[in-house]
What we know:
The protein is α/β, with parallel strands linked by helices. Among the domains are: 237 residues, 3-Layer(bba) Sandwich (FAD/NAD(P)-binding domain); 70 residues, no CATH class; 225 residues, Leucine-rich Repeat Variant. The chain has 32 helices and 31 strands. The longest helix has 18 residues. 62% of the residues are buried.
Amino acid sequence: MTSPTLLSIPELPAFDALVIGSTTAAVISALELRQAGRSVLAISELSYFGSESAGTLRLDSPSEPTIHPLLQRLNSLTPETGLSPNTIKRSMDLALLEAGVGIRYHTRPIGVLRDASGALAGLVLAFRTGWMAVRCGVSVDASNGGLLARLAGVPMTSRALGSVLHWNVLVNGSEKPVHSAARALGKTITVPGDFGTVSLWELTLDRPDCDPLEWPQRLRAGMVDCSIRQSADFPIGAAPYCLKHSDGLAASLSALEASAWQPIPGIILAGQVLPLDESAALALETWEQQVALGKAAAARALLVKLQAAVSPLHMETSGATRGNYTASAAFTRHQGHPLELEIVGFPEWKSCEVAIAGGGTGGAPAGISAARAGADTLLLEFQHGMGGVGTLGLIASYYFGNKVGYTAEFDALIAEADPERVKRATWNPELKMALLHRLLHEAGGRAWMGCFVFGVRMEEARITGLLVSTPYGSGLLPCGAVVDASGNADVAAAAGAPCRWIGREHAGVQGVGLSPRSPGRDNCNSDHSFADDTDCEGVTHAFIRARAKFENEFDVATLLDSRERRQIVGRIELSPLDFLAERTFPDTVFTAKSNFDTHGFTVHPVFMLHPPDKKSLSAHVPLRCMLPLGIEGVVVTGLGMCAHRDAIPVIRMQADVQNQGYAAGIAAAEAARLPDGFAGLAVRGLQDQLVATGILAPEVPGQVDSFPLAPSKIREAVEQSPQTFHDAAVLFAHPEIALPMLLERLLQPGHALDAALVLGMMGRPEAAPILLKAVETEPWDAGWNYRGMGQFGRSMSRLDAMIIALARTGDLSAVSIIEKKICELDADADFSHCRAVALAAVCLRDVRLGEALAVLLNLPGVSGHAELDSLQTVASANPDSIETLSRNVALRELYLARGIFAAGDPSGLGHRILTTYASDLRGPFARHARALLLDGEVPDCLQAA
């Protein structure tokens, strides 16, 4: 028998009470407990609270707002155009923040903590694949699925339900949805901006005859209708399960016995899981009943006597299937000692051949292709619908991409269903989402919405099962192969694959958007912040911030549009040098097309010689960069694959990620049936299938690795000075061969500085004399300040590049020259200049540079730009959807602190600022500062190779 797994889990600060659930009742309960003096953490599996109203598009204002201050706030914030989802969500945010209640979005409990006596002592939470433990004295389970109660082993039973469900949708004007069973709800909404009006309709849908986890997919598959502008996140209906109670089902809250509210010590129920009949359960969803429910649960929770925290603790999961379970460590800002917890086992569910972790841009096509290949396929998506950034992320148009293969097939379906809108080069996100659900269903695949992978089961180095959180509990899903389409390498990271974390090596990432939503607008792209998708607290902050930023909008997206995320270390890394030098591979699985849509600053030295431009490029992407090093059983798609962060802009276009996902699904269907998994995959056979689908051009199969290039090609690039991207890429890709040729070039008048720049970036001391003279005589030129959306061209000046190249030679003669350059900067200094001199200090580590940087950092306005408090950030929010200033000043401050810290930091200024940023609510900043403090220094991705 397999022994229990021992996991080390970060521990959050303890709270008196934890409230679990996304409803208004959860918020009411948290506020009541906080008002009584209890410390409270409110945890929602969604990106908001108010699921029974905002989440179902039930937008009637409270009829009795005076019954609770939360409803009064809601009324006061409601615009003249009427109640909107964003008003509801923002009201909940503000009420909790102002009361001092902790908030965690996109988080679920996956186990309960018990002390040696068996008493409830806390919860184990999961955010993506990161686990966190938190101690508490009492928990309120306000989830409609009774999630916490299930984890604690409380018995549940099926609830008798009617044959239909109702789903609210918004359509243009008074247009009637195509769906035959549609009823007008008599509510017309004027959309902010110039988008006219929409009307609210209710669709009556037959309740599917399948597992309740599959209901959303089946229902959405039947909602292919181009008139629908926005659908509710969830249907309206009573929960399919409820507490198994000796007295049967009650007809009202008042008829419930005390044992129904508190089925076991330490857990209070406050959702539809209470033992009520269907009618009574549905009646709970009104504003007045939500208030009554939340108040009643809080009153019972206040009766629980709080006990002092004790150790040791063990984790209970309501299952006994043992295995070698692994998970990734959660990133937290709390630096307490981790808990060592013994994990006995989880309930084991029916296996599938292919599991798709994520149903977004790449995951949905992967599920469709795996199912079409005949594999028993189950797709797991945390959001309420499929499609990712192109649907729930609201980026409903292609910027670039190779629109062939599966992408061309799907686009033809969109054009057929909605030809007028396609003429505008956008699509209706709701239509695309419904079509994806339909295609998966028609292919024989299944999907579970609101579910995510939080760990894996391993047999040696192979993944054999996924730990999955659902609205109705957690369990083990055995599977033959996995497509990690999380976009964040969640499954691979949980399996222990080596990964790179965004923000660790460089403080700036490609800009993140979180867009306002209007039912009259198809496409809304934004870029106004930084976020790390693996950072629970930071993601929570991002949603709160966006709802305040777009306070007058109808709604805000439920999905972060992040453009750079955690990545695997794969069996090969795709570099910008590869496609700049037109490299081919023997295992190409798709060919991407884009320009350098960087959404920020570049870090690769090739771009310090030649700035990115708008020229379209093609990039062959090999299967090996999708396979994590040392781990079998999983293929990784999207932003989680192994690629240099400056290669990502060329390969992350939606059209290309769709084709990549489709290729991954075909590969997984075959690998699931092979004893060696992906290692036994016949790559040429896979490529032939991809040619047949149109994803690959016929000439791609049979290509070989074109690197290394012949010495004559490298000589040709050297003799071009280099003048082009191609030439520069050739040199950086072949440093050993290029070195003697560049040294010759260094001696030739008219070419010496160009050669010195390349050699300096390569860290060669021979370049120092020429660079010393150039930096000393060159005045400060026009620098660059942070820009995300629409960033093309240089992100540093010519002098910035020369300073970095000089510093990388390691010649200490550069210190006095660079020190003078620092002293010429003032409080208005451009970010790129500050970044250049800070990185020079990192390379040379001379205290004189640190002291000069400290003078600059102490100038008025240069420091003090960390975001440490959501409530303060909300108060200063602005409606700019491409905001850059807040990021520019923070990046400048953080880089200067880094330079001071690396150069000796005699006054401790660098350490103090890094310590502050280690708690910044923007995850990349916090992770970067933390890495510097813990490791002393991290690379800046300036390696030439």
